[in-house]
Design brief:
280 residues, two-stranded antiparallel sheet, two-stranded antiparallel ribbon, mainly alpha, single chain
């Protein structure tokens, strides 16, 4: 990110209570009036379009700064728009090979989508006890769609199409953010990061309609990662044991002993170890 400045904050309504905890799930976010929200979204989209152009011309640091401006204009309760911007910032960091920053931004995108899905599920349950919104009911198995018979049926079908499109958009952005986080974790290396990458790729492998090129990457990663994870695990466990041995020798030295006086024997039946003292 240019000049090492932190990402800009998202726009909050002026009447939002500053004392309200960020994690207060019981309170709905304070929203802007529709006209003001629309104006802020236009401003945010203009910045995003500019950032996309900068990304396309390989000006990745400049693109990050401009995506930050888009975030600053975006109302802080529009989780989908925030997720898109965070995922785009993650893509910039991947291009700059700043793997940790890419992982952090992709995780923020996924967190925003998680909040969105939770809020939409809660809204659906409140509107119809799990039966859909605005009187539209849809079978879980993708079967019969029932209209409530009131109002304009065409209007309700259009709402259903919009709902389906929204779900598809969320899945698409989620897949992109997972791909970017998995890439960053893989490049960072290390036992924990490689395990995290494998978990991301496993989730991606279960997602419907994943683009063929992404599916190919996922399958290759799920084949290549396990041996890398095992190697990283053994290496880090060896390093940890070496440090513990060094610490133990420091403690035992005043008594004329060392860790060489103790032998660990593995029990092949239980997989446990026993510690035996050996006089030097």
């Amino acid at each position: 990110m240019p000049d090492g400045t932190p990402h800009a904050g998202r726009r909050k309504p002026e009447n939002e209570d500053p004392e309200r905890p960020d994690d207060a799930e019981s309170q709905a976010p304070v929203k802007f009036p529709p006209e003001e929200e629309a104006a802020l979204l236009r401003e945010s989209h203009d910045h995003k379009s500019h950032a996309n152009a900068l990304f396309g011309s390989a000006q990745f640091s400049e693109a990050i700064g401009t995506y930050d401006k888009a975030l600053a204009s975006c109302p802080n309760y529009l989780e989908y728009e925030i997720a898109v911007l965070k995922s785009n910032i993650a893509a910039c960091h991947l291009k700059l090979e700043d793997w940790k920053a890419a992982v952090d931004e992709a995780t923020k995108a996924l967190d925003a989508l998680g909040r969105l899905e939770k809020d939409e599920k809660k809204g659906t349950e409140e509107d119809g006890g799990g039966g859909g919104q605005n009187g539209v009911e849809k079978e879980d198995d993708g079967g019969v769609i029932e209209l409530n018979g009131e109002g304009d049926d065409f209007e309700e079908l259009e709402k259903l199409k919009m709902s389906d499109q929204r779900r598809d958009d969320v899945r698409r952005i989620k897949a992109k953010a997972l791909m970017r986080r998995a890439k960053g974790r893989t490049e960072q290396g290390g036992w924990a990061n490689l395990q995290g990458a494998e978990e991301d790729y496993k989730e991606l492998s279960q997602m419907p309609n994943l683009p063929p090129q992404d599916l190919k990457i996922v399958r290759q990663a799920l084949t290549s990662l396990p041996p890398r994870i095992n190697a990283a695990k053994e290496r880090e466990m060896g390093e940890m044991m070496g440090k513990l041995k060094e610490l133990g020798n420091g403690i035992l030295k005043p008594f004329g002993l060392s860790t060489e006086n103790f032998k660990m024997t593995k029990d092949e039946n239980t997989g446990g170890y026993s510690l035996n003292f050996q006089q030097g």
